Amino acid sequence: MNAANKISPNAPKQRAEQDCHSFQAQLPELFDTDTGVTGHPHLADCKDCAALVRDLEYIAAQAKLLLPLHDPSPTVWNNIQSALSHPDEDSNHKNA
Ligand SMILES: [Zn+2]
């Protein structure tokens, strides 16, 4: 008659807010590392911060698309842009 015991009785209902606070304070640094954010143990523990990180990663990915700081080479972008703006002339350019 103790079905409720399957849910661990000692699970903390309130996470220490300081954990979240200090974790989020570290986020900018964690994002800078390769191993960084997603492997952080706090995320396994805290759905709120996991969701937050997912949002931030999405935003960061979008921001990189908008602001290509690690632009591989201007030629690549020129090729992309000309391919986008002149899709029909593509075959004309391939003379080499
Ligand atoms: Zn948290």
**How many strands, what sense, and barrel or not for the largest sheet?**
none
Kindly name the structural category. mainly alpha
Q: List the total number of helices.
A: 5
How many individual β-strands? 0
First-last Cα distance: 80 Å
User: What general outline do the C-alpha atoms trace?
Assistant: elongated
Helix/strand order: HHHHH
**Bound ions, cofactors and other small molecules, one mention each:** zinc ion
Task: Please report which band the strand proportion falls in: under 5%, 5-15%, 15-25%, 25-35%, 35-45% or over 45%.
Answer: under 5%
Description:
With 96 residues, the protein is mainly α. The protein has a domain at 11-69. Helices cover 59% and strands 0% of the residues. It has 5 helices and no strands. The protein has helices at residues 17-32, 41-45, 47-66, 74-85, 90-93. The longest helix has 20 residues, at 47-66. The chain is elongated and about 60 Å long. The termini are far apart. The structure holds zinc ion.
List keywords for this structure.
mainly alpha, about 0% strand, 5 helices, about 100 residues, binds zinc ion
